[in-house]
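Lab manual, section 2.4: Encoding a predicted structure.

Procedure: take the sequence of the chain (440 residues), apply the prediction step described in section 2.3, and record the output as structure tokens. A sample record is shown.
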Amino acid sequence: MPTDIIMPQMGESIVEGTITKWLKKPGDKVQRDEPLFEISTDKVDAEIPAPASGVLQEIKVTEGTTVGVNTVVGTIAVDGEAAAPAKAAPAPEKLAAEKPAPEKKAAPPVAAAPATPVPAAHEEDEEARSSPLVRKMAREHGVHLSQVSGTGLGGRITKQDILSFIENQGSRVGTDAFVGPAERSEASPAPAAAPPAPRPAAPAPYPGDLVPMTNMRKLIAKHMIESRRTSAHVHCMYEVDFTRIVNLRAKLKSGFEQRHGVRLTFMPFFVRAAIIALQQWPIINANIEGESIRYHRNINLGIAVALDWGLIVPVLKNAGDLNFLGLQRGITDLGERARTKKLKPEDVEGSTFTITNPGQFGAVFGLPIINQPNSAIMGVGGITKQPLVITDKDGNDSIAIRSVVHLTLGYDHRLIDGAVADQFMAQVKKNLETWGEEIG
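Recorded output:
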């Protein structure tokens, strides 16, 4: 009997999911645990692996369709079984999440031929061998994916493959701006390729186009409006002399990476400074529950990660129990899994305080919206060199060029008074300017 492919339940509170991309087409061979389709839920975007090896026999639910958990979305014919002719999937529409609809009710009976035009064979192959991000990058740089050799499972073209190809062609890698320097990896040489083919006929949206929101964008919009309606937002900003840490990182980053196999970034310095202050001012790590205040035992830090397709906040659990190296490893791991859609629902739940870093894109500072149900969020601005007045131990003033960063705290004024917020941020500032902790 064929093996059913079901919409998984990605967490106890998840009742439905949206299929955003099928990575295979009917008739394609699949291996057990090979990425088969991509989904989006109200928690995470994720790649779902094949439940068995064989041939993708039928796609029952098309891209863009939302269905309840445990709904059968397709079938796999195991090796040795004859696969039935591919059937047309139902048109994209919102299906009931409470009870998965029976197969026959998903769409009216159709003929054996597909209901929608079938793309050319090479276009289907490219769709199966690459992700939406890879195809977007290829369009932007005029690269035909048939020129690119894939190093992923089954010859799938990864983001690193397309980056390597573009770099070898001397093209500008515009889409990599979403990935900060700390997360970029060295590109491996790609094989020589033929001259670029003409740009594909499906360009990115142009001004005037009406494009439906993605599921993630809808959820971001919903959560931001809810946060504004829930919390009484107030912000304060502090200027921090970051020179000590800039010099320390420049001195130690090479040895740090050699010893530990992970790059030394600035983020764990901000995280560690915030943790120390949160331990002194636990009200910042608390939240309102009805007419009571919940003081959390642990510090679970949400770290906002900018993705090409939106924003997500994975959570570094029990951050107060980690040393500096543990913080760096945890931050790197969460960022990488967010970008590769490997996060689990529990990875984005349970935050008690959030840090976001608009400075990586050049912002001097930001006024972030609180990540509910947290009561505060710290924004990290860009690190720039500025003239500052420096006072020595004898009280003499001088002007020096220093590395400066601006930190902001967005906080819920229902719970946190301005004086408390200022004292918290003053402690964060002091922790950074007088850094004396070993980093490993």
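Check your result against the sample. The first helix runs from residue 121 to 128.
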